[in-house]
Design brief:
The protein has 2 helices and 5 strands. Strand 3 and strand 4 form a beta hairpin. The protein has one domain (about 10-70): N-terminal domain of TfIIb (Single Sheet). Helices cover about 15% and strands about 20% of the residues.
Length: about 80
């Protein structure tokens, strides 16, 4: 029996900070499509909806009100 396919973003080293099981389960609340993880910006990205959902204290904020449009600047990265 073969392993189930996973999005390429899940197997990347930067995804290690995000719980991989959670990333596999979450979908965009607008399109119900896949999300990718931007570790540097701490966001989950929905390319189809053109939205980025922030991750605060390890918790993804999956509301449209909390999201930014991808054409807006990325948030400043905290060191």
């Amino acid at each position: 029996m073969s392993e189930p396919e996973t999005p390429a973003d899940i197997t990347s080293p930067v995804a290690e900070r995000m719980d991989l099981r959670l990333l596999e389960l979450l979908v965009c609340p607008v399109t119900k499509g896949p999300l990718s993880y931007d570790a540097a910006a701490q966001e989950l990205i929905s390319r189809r909806a053109q939205l980025a959902f922030p991750i605060k204290c390890g918790v993804p904020l999956m509301t449209v009100d909390a999201a930014r449009h991808l054409d807006e600047p990325k948030p400043a990265v905290k060191e």
